[in-house]
From TrEMBL:
Segment forming the signal sequence: none
This protein's name: MarR family transcriptional regulator
Record key words, sorted: DNA-binding, Transcription, Transcription regulation
UniProt-annotated stretches for the region Disordered: 152-183
Compositionally biased residues, Polar residues: 173-183
Source organism of this protein record: Microbacterium aquilitoris
């Protein structure tokens, strides 16, 4: 757990620790380090994890749609899927409406690997968010998700590749109820 008591922060003084521009990048950098370590056993690390999350929680989509959704270059997506497929974590099957298009599906091994990686990532999140109680963690996740979805909608740089906010897609229904609620 990362130790810091909010009572140590003098909010009235307006110090650097009260600035969102200081807190967000530091939190992101720490999460990136902890999260990358947590999913390091996953083929292709965080990107492999993102692909497995997307294909287990959303309707099947093509490789190209998946690349666009996750903000991954389509050529890199091919290599990424090749690695996941070589490990037996995903399969690519012809789309029912167009056999030229290949949909990406998780395998049972992919789902099991995702479950393990997700548990390890939650442990990393617990380290980062250790000073917050469970309700505060849920509130933080909810608020950050709302801000991120709104920020994506207001995005003005079409060349900036990043995961596209599409919460309506993550409703496949194959996850457990606890997977769908902030923790």
């Amino acid at each position: 757990m990362i130790e810091t008591e909010s009572s140590e922060i003098d909010w009235d003084a307006g110090g650097i620790e009260t600035e969102l521009g200081w807190a967000l990048p530091l939190t992101f950098q720490t999460f990136t380090r902890l999260g990358t370590e947590a999913v390091s056993a996953m083929p292709q690390g965080p990107r492999g994890y993102q692909v497995l999350v997307a294909i287990t929680t959303e309707e099947p989509s093509s490789q190209l749609q998946l690349a666009q959704r996750l903000g991954i270059d389509k050529t890199q997506m091919t290599y990424l899927l090749d690695a996941l497929e070589a490990e037996g974590l995903v399969s690519r099957r012809p789309a029912p409406t167009d056999r030229r298009v290949r949909h990406v599906h998780p395998t049972d091994a992919g789902r099991a690997t995702l479950d393990t990686a997700r548990a390890q990532l939650r442990q990393a999140e617990d380290r980062l968010l250790g000073t917050l109680d469970p309700d505060e963690r849920a509130t933080l996740r909810t608020l950050l998700a709302r801000v991120a979805v709104a920020a994506d909608a207001a995005r003005t740089d079409p060349d900036f590749e990043h995961p596209v906010a599409a919460p309506e897609r993550s409703r496949r229904g194959t996850s457990t109820p606890t997977d769908r609620t902030p923790s």
